[in-house]
């Protein structure tokens, strides 16, 4: 098995926590000097890399717990209040091409009796000018 070199910028030397955050780009591009055939080498122009990352710029990366409460409803508890606010305020959110309806929890919620009274929709009218 190949060992990391002592001057490897991604190796903290003891298998512990690294001293600073390293971006995905830095991790991917760091192997330019390394001749280890087990590590993939990716060479991209900055514009291509930035363009491929663009769809993920607004992705939510958060720590949370999720509980299936039945009837297609889930309760999500966030560890960070800022992440919770981002989910409630921002959006719309999609998972596998399905829009999620997000709302705050209320005490008397019963999943078998719950109904969705309003939803956001996107309607496309073919050949309708966008300036209409």
TrEMBL record:
- What highest taxon heads this organism's lineage? Eukaryota
Annotated ranges, domain DUF4283 = 56-108
Which is a Pfam family this sequence falls into?
A: DUF4283
InterPro entries, per this entry? At4g02000-like, DUF4283
Protein's name in the database: DUF4283 domain-containing protein
- Give the source species: Glycine max
């Amino acid at each position: 098995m190949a060992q990391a070199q002592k001057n490897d910028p991604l190796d903290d030397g003891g298998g512990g926590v690294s001293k600073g955050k390293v971006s995905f780009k830095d991790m991917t591009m760091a192997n330019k000097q390394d001749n280890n055939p087990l590590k993939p080498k990716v060479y991209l122009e900055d514009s291509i890399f930035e363009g491929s990352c663009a769809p993920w710029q607004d992705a939510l990366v958060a720590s949370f717990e999720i509980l299936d409460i039945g009837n297609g409803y889930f309760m999500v508890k966030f560890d960070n209040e800022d992440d919770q606010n981002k989910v409630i305020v921002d959006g719309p959110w999609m998972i596998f091409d399905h829009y999620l309806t997000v709302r705050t929890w209320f005490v008397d919620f019963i999943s078998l009796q719950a109904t969705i009274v309003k939803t956001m929709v996107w309607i496309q009218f073919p050949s309708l000018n966008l300036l209409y």
